[in-house]
Amino acid sequence: MLSLIDPINNLLWGEGQVLIYLLVAAGIWFTVRLRFVQLRHFLHMFSVMKNSTRDDASGISSFEALCTGLSARVGTGNLAGVAVAISLGGPGAVFWMWVIALLGMATGFAESVLGQLYKIRDSKQEFRGGPAYYIQMGLNKRWLSISFAVCLFLGYGFSFSAMQANTITDALNYSYGIPRLWAGLAIAVVAGFIVTGGLRRVAHFAEIVVPFMGVGYILVALSITVMNISLVPDVFCNIFSSAFGLQEAGAGAMGAAIKNGVQRGLYSNEAGAGSVPHAAAGASPYPNHPVTQGFVQMLGVFFDTLVLCTCTAVMVLLAGGSYSGEMEGIRMIQDAMTVHMGGAGTHFVSLAITLFAFSSVVANYAYAESNLHLFKLDNRKGRIGYTALYLGMVVWGSNASLKQVWALADMSLGLMTVVNIIAITLLTPTIIALSNHYFSKKRAGVLPEYRAGEIPIQGKSETGIW
Fold it and tell me: Which residues sit opposite 283 in a β-bridge?
């Protein structure tokens, strides 16, 4: 399988570096066109969460949408992904993760505004949306819409959940000797119970689990940082000097830091990949304006990478973790936490990765399931078939090799991102028009609300939801 996947990944992530250029360009494009929205309105993205209510039985609240988006984002990328970045790119990879996250906040804003604008109701009267929908409804490009949906099924429907399961079972096997296959079967059973309840059950699960695991992880990281406060300045000096090739390895180390930082940063926060617009589409926003979800999911990018990934990186680097040249995953985190917490460190990481990765497993299902409508499989047989394949991949991933699983996930994410970046760039006029409409209302002291026909948009909302 790797013989087929590796050439594609080499073009996207390796020597071709297509995605590195594409993501940086998209981040700069939306940062400039939206007039540095992630900086100018940084505090406002917190304020939109104050009145997070579910005012439509068909949707989920903005807080549930944030938690659903975070449950997919906050997974192995925040633990194993950071370890992979540091082991292959050195401490400097952490800096480039920050850069792609800061730029990605603008990209995440743009795609989530579109996800909320172009959406439909499915056969269960729940909201459904995402890149495949705004490509078809906004750009009227059916072939590109289907291309994205296929990539999404390969990624979020199958390979990403397999990779999350792989990390959980590896951690449990390393800590407790639990056979990976049995752990994989247990994950599939519990996940199956949650996902068969649809987006609202997934959102409710995320609303409970995500705040608990996020706050707990941050508190542990802060405690370890305080206990090692004298070492912190050296850690950050190491990150910055490594990021710009100021150490012995020079330009080669800088190149590895940029490549791995951008790659793992994208995998962690997913900005531009086209995943989070599915959660944004499911929300009933307050105020009733598509831009609200842009701010909600922009907050998700910030929390995921600039907060949680930084917590992991600091804990690893304080324990002496650094560039090895060989891909290291969750075990690197377990070893670091053993340095900080003794035997309890392994138990903490096992619990954290199980919660983080499992929340991603169930959210990934919901993202891909949202696109069954496009293939006219939004019915009982279609859902049963998709669910069986999805759970089968969870079991397969639990026992596959680390390199196989990450390679498949990287290819799927890369192809999704290429299609989505093209689409949101073409839809820039609509994003800017909606943003200007929102901010003009806000400056006038009026609650920003949007009604169809108020401003010109590309394509049309076929369902009349807006």
Answer: 60
